[in-house]
From TrEMBL:
The lineage of its organism: Eukaryota, Fungi, Dikarya, Ascomycota, Pezizomycotina. CDD domains: OAT_like. GO terms for cellular component: mitochondrion. PROSITE patterns: AA_TRANSFER_CLASS_3 (PS00600). It catalyses: 4-aminobutanoate + 2-oxoglutarate = succinate semialdehyde + L-glutamate. Its cofactor is pyridoxal 5'-phosphate. It comes from Hyphodiscus hymeniophilus. It is an enzyme of class 2 (transferase). GO terms for biological process: gamma-aminobutyric acid catabolic process. Signal peptide: none annotated. This is 4-aminobutyrate aminotransferase.
Length: 502
């Protein structure tokens, strides 16, 4: 109750868009309720998008020109005004207000300027964490265990009761890879109590075996796991990420490329998945740099929103157990409720949990979960850096979890995702050839489709008031927030119809 009272007290702090300044607030709540029969999570949201200028408009162009002098702006999607962004809507300096179904590349969980997060950010615990940021490996605060237990570990995947905190998704994967390598070499030596040899110690300093062992991490074609050196060696989505960067000679297995609709291609897809699993086993057993772990995304996100069946992932888990290889599930983009379950791998019904699950994005913090105590290095400072995460961001994740539970947002995502998918199926029938390979049924709002004119589609979306993104070569991917509701889905579907007619 205390947290709800805090939210109520902070309602007046919610940012006001120019729409709200026109006193639309009460009408917005009534209109949204009448339209879908649901109560809006953010009653003070705009009733819909407003497009007043081309995007970017004159004020945005001035901001970009100024920023470009000191910061690379070539990858910009748009310039935002976050003080006027609220709920599912992102505003820009020109007064444009867009329904945001891209959400900072799938990273905003419970809406812009969420009053509950504002309350958490204003707490004395948060203020202390920000102004007295600790080097967690050496000087953790006395409440660090409590922060972890009441937040990050409260939603730990089944069977995983420990966490290594990190700074970002790439960092989370890098440290998981390091844990896998150390675990493997510890096994080779005969256990955690067997010390390093003099040869291992000296050879490690010149980047040679045995101290720098000839091992690998197996990943999948078209996968994405980050842009740091180890994670980049397992990233296979786009050449632009990898060009000019030295990489490890690590193996990549075939990811099954499913055909849609799934019910029309069941036998072909089964064969594709069996062939992919055979490729995994071949590489585990024959690659000259033996893999000590397999890393996989539940849905290959940056690589084009590529799916596989639960059966495929259960087969992958059996292979890793058979060959004593760790399974790392990269839930950086799929985790925290986006697929209608808190963790996407919960859809798989695994007999045994993954060995590690990495997370970031919607968690607003990062790291990897694990359960096996042998994944802790046998000596201190082996898995270490100055910050080792950020208590302020862990506190924010705790507030996000509270908001997800208060509003039952995982169930909301599953429900609204089904409604949205049905609407997209209708558009695909009405506009044949424009919405291809629609995928993500039963996966919450983690939905995508292929478009023969993807870049044009994404650009035109802003003109009808929607911020949307792409992935892979021609996929349009939907990444709405967990507070995305049926009336937002209606707005999105209407906007898409306008694009498809144009």
């Amino acid at each position: 109750m205390a947290s709800l009272r805090a939210v109520a007290r902070l309602r007046h702090l919610a940012p006001r868009t120019h729409l709200q300044q026109r006193s639309y607030v009460a009408a917005a709540a009534v209109k949204q309720t009448q339209r879908s029969g649901e109560q809006p999570f953010f009653p003070n949201e705009p009733t819909g998008p407003i497009v007043q200028t081309a995007i970017p408009g004159p004020q945005s162009k001035k901001a970009i020109e100024r920023l470009d002098k000191v910061f690379d702006t070539r990858s910009f999607n748009m310039i935002a005004n976050y003080q006027k962004s609220y709920g599912n809507y992102i505003a820009d300096p020109d007064g444009n207000v867009l329904l945001d179904v891209y959400a900072q590349i799938a990273s905003i969980p419970v809406g812009y300027s969420n009053p509950s997060l504002h309350a958490a950010a204003s707490s004395e615990q948060m203020i202390s964490a920000m102004i007295n940021r600790p080097a967690l490996g050496s000087f953790p605060s006395e409440d660090w265990a409590s922060i972890l237990e009441s937040g990050i570990l409260r939603v730990a995947p089944k069977g995983l009761d420990q966490v290594f905190t990190a700074m970002a998704g790439s960092d989370a994967n890098e440290t998981a890879y390091k844990a896998a390598f150390m675990w493997r070499r510890q096994q080779d030596r005969g256990g955690p109590d067997v010390d390093f040899t003099a040869d291992e110690i000296s050879s490690s300093m010149i980047n040679q075996a045995p101290g720098a062992p000839q091992l690998s991490i197996l990943s999948f074609k078209t996968g994405f796991h980050g842009r740091l050196f180890g994670s980049l060696s397992t990233t296979r989505s786009k050449a632009i990420h990898k060009l000019d960067i030295p990489a490890f000679d690590w193996p990549q297995a075939t990811f099954p490329l499913l055909k849609y609709p799934l019910e029309d291609h069941a036998e072909e897809n089964h064969i594709a998945e069996e062939e992919a699993l055979a490729d995994v086993e071949r590489l585990i057993t024959t690659h000259p740099l033996p893999p000590c772990a397999v890393v996989v995304e539940p849905i290959q996100s940056e690589g084009g929103d590529n799916h596989a069946s639960p059966s495929f992932f259960r087969g992958l888990r059996k292979l890793t157990k058979k060959h004593n290889v760790l399974l790392i599930v990269d839930e950086v983009q799929t985790g925290v409720g986006a697929t209608g379950k808190f963790w996407a791998h919960d859809h798989w019904d695994l007999e045994t949990p993954p060995d590690m699950v990495t997370f970031s994005k919607k968690a607003q913090t990062a790291g990897f979960y694990f359960g096996n105590p042998e994944l802790r290095p046998n000596k201190p400072f082996r898995q270490f850096n100055t910050w080792m995460g950020d208590p302020a961001r862990a506190i924010l994740f705790r507030a996000i979890i509270d908001e997800i539970e208060r509003l039952d947002l995982v169930a909301n995502t599953a429900r609204v995702g089904g409604y949205l998918f049905e609407g997209l199926e209708g558009l695909a029938k009405r506009f044949p050839g424009e919405i291809l390979n629609l995928r993500g049924k039963g996966q919450g709002t983690f939905i995508a489709f292929d478009s023969p004119r993807r870049d044009e589609f994404v650009k035109k979306a802003k003109g009808v008031g929607v911020n949307i993104g792409g992935s892979g070569e021609r996929a349009v991917r939907l990444r709405p927030m967990l507070i995305f509701q049926q009336h937002h889905a209606d707005i999105l579907l209407e906007a898409m119809e306008k694009i498809l007619k144009s």
